[in-house]
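Why does residue order matter? Because the sequence determines the fold. Keep that principle in mind as you read this record.
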Amino acid sequence: MNDTEETLLRRAIELAREAREVHGNPPFGSLLADADGTVLAEDRNTSITDDDITAHPELKLARWAAQHLAPEVAATTTMFTSTQPCGMCAGAIERSGLGRVVYALSTEQFLTLRPPVTWGGHKLDGPALFDEARVPVEGYYR
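Structure:
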């Protein structure tokens, strides 16, 4: 990483601090920068204050990029984020076409800093009814 990238990653960490200390939300922050390092957008986790379990900054920035950037521009951007994106956010980042993600804490490191998740899991059953389920999908992605 170069000096500019370190500065941008430190800003993402500061956004995480603000999310927690200023707004009472989980400590996650992210920003999106263009190829020159200019910040295009930044956000914090707002899942508590927005009463929205999906209000992760990475998801919000991926959505912003998909709405406001041409695909060729999105592909040249870098998201700087305080923690490695969760599965939900990683999917949104992929679909938004962002070019790169730089994170400070890995998921493995993050998990050492919080207690184990205590909410109940969900049961996942499938696949089922392949012949029926494929009909609306088949041919769409060509």
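The mean pLDDT is 95.
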